[in-house]
Write a structure and sequence with these properties.
A hairpin with a 5-residue loop joins β1 (about 5-15) and β2. By secondary structure, the chain is α+β, with helices and mostly antiparallel strands. The chain has three helices and seven strands, in the order ββαβααββββ. α1 (about 45-65) packs parallel to α3 (about 100-105). The protein has helices at about 45-65, 85-95, 100-105; strands at about 5-15, 20-35, 75-80, 115-120, 125-130, 145-150, 155-165. It is globular and about 50 Å long. Strands 1, 2, 3, 4, 5, 6 and 7 form a seven-stranded mixed beta sheet that branches. It holds the Pfam family AA_synth. InterPro entries: AA_synth_put, BB2672.
Amino acid sequence: MIVRKTLFTKEIISSDERGQPCAPITRVAALAVVQNPFADTDQDDLSELFEIAVNLGPVLSAELVSMLSGPAVSYGKAALVGMAGAMEHGAAVLHPKLGAPVRAAIGGGAALMPSNHKVGTMGDRIDLPLGHKDDPWSFNFIDTMTLSVADAPRADELVLCIALSDGTRAHPRVGARPQGK
């Protein structure tokens, strides 16, 4: 596994889009730019990509936990695959092995980790979905972080993204679990 670079971002939200103050919400994200070993190849066995999550997941997650102001209550993951790769390469990095190290770092998480993956070019943005770590029906915690790396992914790279938050959206008004769910 060749990691070209890692980036960390921290947002502290103290008001909504209209300027109404709210209790501070911290959202943090880690992005790792990694060489895609299957760029320009047609490969059925993608298990080598699982190891990216096994190796980077614990390290990135631990750093993110240290950046939060409070305990993590929501999480999400995303992958942006360079043009010589396939969308399935992003899925292979995210799905089979990334959830466990993130859950271990935050002390649990019963809900499926929301995710997104796509093929793109350098500087493209990816919308990383966030959801409550224990209750997928907690609508107030459904959110998005839009992330990008100016010089990645190159055609033969992928960008692995993990995000955590210690709060809801600013002034959520949608509610929690709908009746009957």
